[in-house]
Design brief:
This protein is α/β, with parallel strands linked by helices. It contains eight helices and eleven strands.
Length: 247
């Protein structure tokens, strides 16, 4: 199912305005917009609500989704436990996806880092892992949600170094060190359009789904499996037979 109509909460912010520009490029109608101090709510129902605003706006977003029955793609960084609880409750009524990072190449980096951590743990005792989390000074949270997700996916043992300087948008470096050798997995984003493209790609997958709780990684998994079912199955079979070292 394709997305035919969109609502954007936080439509004048960095990410929200990038999503709006991408919708304009595609001729995709934005039927509702909410921004700091104002709103425009049309009569047509949005297929999906993209919330790229601030944690404090979630009550209004949830109300909009409940009234319209629209799916929710939640792209707000570090919403906190209480708002995650509200999102969980909302997911009993509509499909809700929480997207820590919208980039498809970030999804590949996370999967690759998880596999590298598993393999390194299976063959060596002295591997050290580090994540360098670079954002511009406008980034509020440190470490970022992306860095925390990388660490969690790698087993929770990596050290994170967060630095705030330089250009938009972000760099995330995963470094494995074992004795005299190093492996690095790097992902850099230089244009916020990458996130906007990812948001609309994920929205197109989310509207296919029933009410429930989803992550960006789960949606990208579904997209990849549908695009290449044989290779995805082969990859899963290989990874499920990787031995792990007892600690």
């Amino acid at each position: 199912m394709d997305v035919n109509t969109v609502a954007i909460v936080g439509s004048t912010g960095r990410l929200g305005s990038a999503v709006a520009r991408e919708c304009a490029r595609r001729g995709l109608p934005i039927v509702a917009e909410v921004w700091s101090g104002g709103r425009r709510i049309g009569t047509e129902r949005p297929d999906v609500v993209v919330d790229a605003s601030h944690p404090a706006a979630l009550d209004d977003t949830a109300d909009l989704c409940r009234r319209t029955g629209s799916a929710l793609l939640y792209c707000v960084s570090d919403p906190g436990g209480e708002r995650l609880r509200l999102l969980r409750e909302l997911s009993a009524e509509i499909p809700v996806a929480v997207a820590t990072n919208l980039s498809p190449l970030h999804w590949i980096q996370v999967r690759t880092a998880a596999l590298a951590a598993q393999l390194a743990g299976a063959i060596t005792d002295d591997v050290e892992t580090m994540i360098v989390d670079r954002h511009p000074t406008t980034k509020r949270d440190a470490p970022s949600g992306t860095a925390r997700l990388l660490r969690e996916t790698m087993g929770g043992h990596a050290d994170i170094t967060s630095v705030r300087y330089g250009p938009a948008v972000s760099d995330h470096h995963v470094v494995f060190t074992a004795g005299p050798e190093t492996l690095e997995l790097n992902h850099s984003v230089r244009d916020i359009r990458a996130a906007a493209l990812g948001a609309l790609r994920l929205a197109g997958e989310l509207v296919r789904l029933p009410a429930g709780w989803f992550t960006a990684a789960q949606l990208y998994d579904r997209i990849a499996e549908r695009s290449a079912p044989d290779s995805a199955a082969d990859s899963s079979a290989v990874s499920s037979h990787i031995p792990t070292r007892s600690r």
